[in-house]
Design goal:
alpha+beta; two-stranded antiparallel ribbon; 6 helices
Length: 164
Amino acid sequence: MEQTTHTHQPKQEEEVGAFTTGSEDTWRSNDILAATDPILTQPGLGITTTTITTITQTGGDWSTGLFDICSDKTTCILGALVPCCLDLSLSHQYGECLCMPLLPGSTFAMRVGIRERYKIQGSVCEDWATVYCCYPLAVCQMIREMKRRMKSQTYRVSTALECS
């Protein structure tokens, strides 16, 4: 009768550069270690933080009156001849799609939005009466307001570099 004896000898591991060669179990443990320990920062000059602050004048009343049409002659002429084109320009300045003036009630909605954005005193009823009773004058007033508010915006940019 023959008797066979099996002995388990661990394989020799040899180091090659930064990698260790050896058994399959060693490879799996290295993979798990690499997957659970991600690199969070890369070496470099540092972290740059840029902050942009926009200061907008808010509050108060409309900067021009409804019948103050002579303060901006181009707007006055466009409002008298083609108020729908002026409404397209207003929609663009307000940051909306150019198709917005085609929707019913869009000019009223933009007027309420401008009043809310710049904290102008008034009410929804006043906005509705102004838009539906004096449409060309209302659009001219909103264009003048947007122009004046956009000119008075102040931008402050600050950049900071944190060295690592």
